[in-house]
Amino acid sequence: PGDTSVLAGLYGPAEAKISKELPDRAALEVLLRPKVGLPGVLERSREQLLRQTCEAVVLGVLHPRTAISLVLQVLSDAGSLLSCCLNAACMALLDAGLPLSTLFCGVTCALQPDGTILLDPTSRQEQEARAILTFAIASSERKVLMANTKGSCSVEEMQQCLAAAQRAATTIFQFYRDSVRRRYSK
């Protein structure tokens, strides 16, 4: 939803601390800062999902022994936060000019008790949902890079949510293209 916003900052590729250095690729760190207070268990688990997604697309072999830090600061959370973080992460990677194998976007689906699928649910719709599914979808072949499910749904319902998310991804990738074009045509 339009009311969820996340600020992304990307630092690096910079010299890595010896303890974090990887000999064959860049070490990628993702930090998720909540709007208030300190990061907790939820932020940590989301950081891991975000890092795995970013690692799947960043061509880190081109910057071995370096460190890349992506810091995501939640400004407001009105629902669909994880997909907002995914979109902010991809835009930050793109904006930093890091070599990527593909772009990706995040889409959240809420499965209503009656089985209907809502895209981009608000916090309230998330609370009323039977299941919430968030997908990270690659721009190449609309492949799924990450899937996260909360609640219960059948395999068939999950496939329906995924299909809806893959359709929605087209709109998001168009938005990326438009914003990049706007930025570089100034």
UniProtKB/TrEMBL annotation:
Gene3D superfamilies membership: GHMP Kinase, N-terminal domain (3.30.230.70)
Molecular-function annotations in GO: DNA binding; RNA binding
Keywords noted in UniProt: Cytoplasm, DNA-binding, Exosome, Nucleus, Phosphoprotein, rRNA processing
Signal peptide segment: none
GO CC, alphabetical: cytoplasmic exosome (RNase complex); nuclear exosome (RNase complex); nucleolus
Gene Ontology BP annotations: nuclear mRNA surveillance; poly(A)-dependent snoRNA 3'-end processing; rRNA catabolic process; rRNA processing; U4 snRNA 3'-end processing
CDD domains named in the record: RNase_PH_RRP46
Broad class of where this protein is predominantly found: cytoplasm
SUPFAM superfamilies referenced in this protein's UniProt entry, alphabetically: Ribonuclease PH domain 2-like, Ribosomal protein S5 domain 2-like
Subcellular location: Cytoplasm; Nucleus, Nucleolus
Pfam families: RNase_PH (PF01138), RNase_PH_C (PF03725)
Sequence ranges assigned to domain Exoribonuclease phosphorolytic in this UniProt record: 2-99, 103-167
Entry similarity comment: Belongs to the RNase PH family.
Oligomeric form and interacting partners: Homodimer. Component of the RNA exosome core complex (Exo-9), composed of EXOSC1, EXOSC2, EXOSC3, EXOSC4, EXOSC5, EXOSC6, EXOSC7, EXOSC8 and EXOSC9; within the complex interacts with EXOSC3, EXOSC8, and EXOSC9. The catalytically inactive RNA exosome core complex (Exo-9) associates with the catalytic subunit EXOSC10/RRP6. Exo-9 may associate with DIS3 to form the nucleolar exosome complex, or DIS3L to form the cytoplasmic exosome complex.
Protein name as catalogued: Exosome complex component RRP46
Organism: Helopsaltes ochotensis
Gene: Exosc5
